[in-house]
Amino acid sequence: MAILVAADFGIDDWDAWWPHLQAALPCETLVRAPHAVPAGEIDIALVANPPLGSLQGLSNLRLIQSLWAGVDRLLADVTVPPGVPLARMVDPQMNDAMAQTAAWAVLSLQRGFFEYAAQQRRSVWAPRPWRRADEFTVAVLGLGQMGRAAAQRLAALGHPVLGWQRHDAVAAVSGIECSAGEAALESVLARADAVINLLPLTDATRGVFAARTFAQMRRGASLVNLARGAHVVEADLLAALDRGHLDRAVLDVFATEPLPTGHPFWSHPAVTVLPHVAAPTDARSAAPIAARNVFALRSGAPLQHLVDRTRGY
Ligand code: NAP
Ligand code: GLV
Questions:
Q1: Do 105 and 279 contact (CB within 8 A), yes or no?
Q2: 70 lines ligand 2 (CB under 6 A)
Q3: Is 204 in the pocket of ligand 1 (CB under 6 A)?
Q4: 240 and which of 84, 143, 215, 246 could share a cystine (Cβ 3.0–4.6 Å)?
Q5: Based on the number of CB atoms within 10 Å of its own CB, is 258 exposed (0-12), middle (13-18) or buried (19 or more)?
């Protein structure tokens, strides 16, 4: 049997991934194109934003292993076979990278470093008032792999951290004030100086940041979106920034990526743009993790990190 690697990689990405996949799966036949072997011989697909239709007609497919953590695009692709187990990437290195990005964003907001960068461009020397970490409350929406790592890092930096998730039953995170469910969201938003979005993109969370939720946020608070662009209604965010209700948005993800030339976020003085780099997948750690599920499938052991397609994450 063979493993299809289906990805929207450029040449550099293939060069980065291929040696690590081969090293992690030395006894497997890896192919990049479905027609490289008869379709019936492919029983596993390793995927990263696979081109539309890549997995169609693979009648013996038994595992789809995503190389990305978020699977919203895969779940939205009607050509991905619905009955095949789908596993997502869960990599402690990515969680750590996400915690670093969250810490950088919050520290920059708390200490005014984004404003100092803008002041430098205008040759302005003007120290600003600042708050201590314990005076700057952070809300982390989504306490999964990434959210927990971010919340714990921020608590260790001395911030009061409010965590919000879907289920009450999920284990508490030490040092974090946790709450769950829609009814709790308003008070979480109202108490935070910075709100970090680390929710998965599902039917329930699409557009969660809109005029209504921005109005629930404290005046002068900031939004840090590190999850998916479609969580945010961009026009509502711009309106909240323009009328001064929100202080700043730090955005790593966008409805359309790359962010189109001329998009108002590029030049807005209260928006910081990152090119979807908050927690990049690292082939060095991710290839061996993907390989573990291949070994599990081959040996009949349980597959790890399966996605619940009904709930959407
Ligand atoms: P995850 O492990 O699946 O965690 C999901 C968390 O969100 C869980 O705490 C879950 O609560 C909560 N949640 C789900 N639906 C909810 C709802 N309707 N209301 C309240 N809470 C809800 O996800 P992850 O791996 O941490 O990924 C988080 C996000 O980061 C995803 O959007 C992913 O696509 C994105 N991401 C971005 C980058 C980047 O570079 N920017 C990199 C990787 C991932 P329960 O536990 O109670 O179910
Ligand atoms: C990146 O956004 C990922 O989902 O891994």
A1: no
A2: yes
A3: yes
A4: 246
A5: exposed
Q: How far is the CA of 234 from the centre of ligand 1 (A)?
A: 20
- What is the rounded CA–CA span in Å between residue 91 and residue 253? 20
Nearest to 187 by CA among 216, 220, 149: 216
- The minimum-distance atom of ligand 2 relative to the CA of 71 is 4
Per-residue pLDDT of the chain (313 residues; tens, 9 = 90+): 999 999 999 999 999 999 999 999 999 999 998 889 999 999 999 999 999 999 999 999 999 999 999 999 999 999 999 999 999 999 999 999 999 999 999 999 999 999 999 999 999 999 999 899 999 999 999 999 999 999 999 999 999 999 999 988 666 788 899 999 999 999 999 999 999 999 999 999 999 999 999 999 999 999 999 999 999 999 999 999 999 999 999 999 999 999 999 999 999 999 999 999 999 999 999 999 999 999 999 999 999 999 999 999 9
Q: Is 69 in the pocket of ligand 2 (CB under 6 A)?
A: yes
C-alpha 304 – ligand 2 centre gap (Å): 17
